[in-house]
Amino acid sequence: ISGTVKETDTEADIVAASIAKNGSFAVATGSSKSYVSEVVFYSKDGVEKLHWYSSDILVMGISLRDDGRKMAVVGVQAKNGAMESRLLVFDTGSNKDPVKYTGTNVMLYQVGFLSNGAIAAVGDTETWTVHTGSEKISKIQYADKKLIGCDFADSQVGLVLQTYGTTSGFTVLAVNKTGNQVYSIDFDEGFQSFSSCPGNRFFVLTDE
User: Fold this and answer.
1) Do residues 14 and 29 touch, judged by C-beta distance below 8 A?
2) φ, ψ for residue 46 (rounded to 5)?
């Protein structure tokens, strides 16, 4: 793809965006109407194919599968005085309602597709992995640690965790597409940045 495929103004601030390998893309914004959030999916030619509004879910993150046929959206909403997180999985080629996954006591704010159709949704207290078409959610909880970084690789999501009340030392762990922790390594240094690279590998930058 070269040149400008689509240029448009949004009536509300953009909160998240995603581009698939096939060139299709999606944008999530707040809403200037009587809604809280809206998400628009475009084909690789810039043609609007799906427009979703929500009056109760505040969208935090979105992700497209490589082929653009599936879109995952994470967000939060207030329900009965408590916070509830939602993971929604859309079929971008149809008008069917999204598949919905719900959890409490967690704020999901990042999401990504892993290989074989798995989806990882990262929150402040736990990470979910699900497979499209399955109702099962596999969860990795952080216990006494806080999330300070994450990224998505081919078939794993990497998490950087730090014990509450500390400013140095952290743990990097990887969760595979079935929701199992596959490795963990501790660092004594201060954390700077974290990113993935091809082949289920992660780069960690420390302050020493």
Assistant:
1) yes
2) 85, 15
Instruction: List, in order, residues 6 or more apart from 37 with CB less than 8 Å away.
Output: 15, 28, 29, 30, 31, 53, 54, 57, 58, 59, 75
Does position 38 have pLDDT exceeding 90, yes or no?
yes
pTM: 0.91
Q: Is 159 left (phi over 0), alpha (psi -120 to 50) or beta?
A: beta
Task: For the chain, give the mean pLDDT.
Answer: 92
What lies within 8 Å, CB to CB, of 27 at 6+ separation is 10, 14, 16, 17, 39, 40, 42
Q: How far apart are CA 44 and CA 126, in angstroms?
A: 34
* CA dihedral of 105, 139, 76, 135, whole degrees rounded to 10: -120
pLDDT > 90: percent of the chain: 81
Q: Is the separation of the CB atoms in 39 and 17 below 8 Å?
A: no
* Residues 177-195 pLDDT 10s: 999 999 999 999 999 999 9
